[in-house]
Amino acid sequence: MRKIINRYILLEITVPFFIILFVLTFVLLMGRIFQITELIMNKGISAWSILNLIAHLMPNFLLFTLPIALLIAILIAMGRFSADNEITALKTSGVSLLQIYYPVAVASLVTFLITVVIGYYLVPHSNFATKKLLFELAQQNATIGIKEKTFNTNFRGLLFYADKIPTSGEYMEGVLVADRRLTGEPSTILAKKAYIVADPVTMIVKLRLADGSIHTVSPDLKSYRKIDFKIYDIHLDLSYALAAISEEAKSSTEMTMTELLEKIRTPGLDAPVRRELSIEAHKKFSIPFSCIFFGLLAVPMGIRSHRAVKSRGFALGMIIVSAYYLLRIGGEALVETGYLLPSLGVWAPNIFFTVLGILLLIIAHREWPLTRILRFPRLPVKINQR
To answer: Per-domain residue ranges for the chain?
Structure first.
């Protein structure tokens, strides 16, 4: 009978879990839909490349949506059990709340392990693979958005104009570039030809100008300077934020745990950089651990009788998640400024919610009324009689 009950509870958690996971992941993806649409419409990126890019982004989305979906699914399941008096029937049959929590603990542990694998292995590799993919797309499609006899602003800080582009698209003729990256000294560049050049070693996309001149006027309009050149390279800052990245220049979110630990042990490393790396190392386990205490919190909070089971469970779940992430962001901010140790700042919200979840589970298991928990001892009052 106990196995039947466990399977029943797991089934009630699993169905809303996958629905909520899909909805939350889709909502996060919708935040990028405008950028993806621009890549398709304006950049000429193929649908297959876009699907590949979305696949690389999925581990980052799942790292956050898996714990949230688990929390809300448990709240909804426990709320439905309570609303249908199934919790009461189970307790009457001799099934304790801790036994009801057993399948919830199994679901929390499985989700925790999956999230650990995603955060530990998949996220750093997918982050770096995403930048590599963006570089390859830029290398193949940088000239697609450039049209002849049209001013182009795809490159940050540059206004680009090409008088003629051959059908092959290998180069551009009659090029004009307004360089506004140096605000104090903007310049205009004229060139007979221009090429898009991608360096696979440094992963930088360049605009290579040939046979031209640079014209610069001082801010007070009193001096003019002209420089002729045969070859002149301009590093392009594309709209989808390509940077000069390499294996040696990974950011903290692109490093594996081994790389993070090796970097942290580097002698003479700046304290802010060391703190940033330490935060990222702790987050590889602290974020997945949220699955554990979300399960602890969801059971006692979900077994309250109410009517709107799904809406209340979703709202309560979002409140808990918001409180957790606000505390986590605050803790990380204190670590970054040097006021807290990384281990304390990152793990303090987890410890707080774990202790709170255990206390609420014990209170619900022993069926202590809230008034008993909050009751203050009465102080003796002495009345003076005359």
So the answer is: 2-139+256-369, 151-235
Enumerate the β-bridge partners of residue 231.
210
CA angle centred on 166, ends 161 and 171, rounded to 5°: 60
The sign of the torsion formed by the CA atoms of 117, 121, 122, 127 equals positive
Nearest-angstrom CA–CA distance, 265 and 78: 46
246 and 237 Cβ atoms separated by less than 8 Å: no
d(CA 29, CA 280): 23
Under 8 Å between Cβ of 148 and 175: no
DSSP for residue 376: P
Which residues in 349-359 are b (16+ Cβ under 10 Å) and which e? bbeebbeebee
d(CA 22, CA 19): 5
Beta strands in the chain (DSSP E): 151-152, 158-164, 172-179, 187-199, 204-217, 224-235
> What is the rounded distance in angstroms from the CA atom of residue 160 to the CA atom of residue 175?
8
Nearest by Cα to 293 from 101, 58, 119? 101
Written as six digits, the tokens of 69 are: 């979906």
pLDDT tens, position by position, 124-173 = 888 878 777 766 666 555 555 567 788 776 666 778 888 888 766 677 88
How far apart CA 130 and CA 254 sit, in angstroms, is 10
CB atoms within 10 A of CB 332: 22
Compute the Cα dihedral for 315, 316, 321, 324 and give only its sign.
positive
- Contacting residues for 329 by C-beta, under 8 A, at least 6 apart: none
DSSP letter for 157, please.
T
Q: Which residues in the chain show pLDDT less than 50?
A: 239-248, 376, 379, 381, 383, 385-386
Provide the CA 186 distance to its chain's centre, in angstroms: 37
Tell me if residue 163 falls in helix, strand or coil: strand
Its pTM surpasses 0.85: no
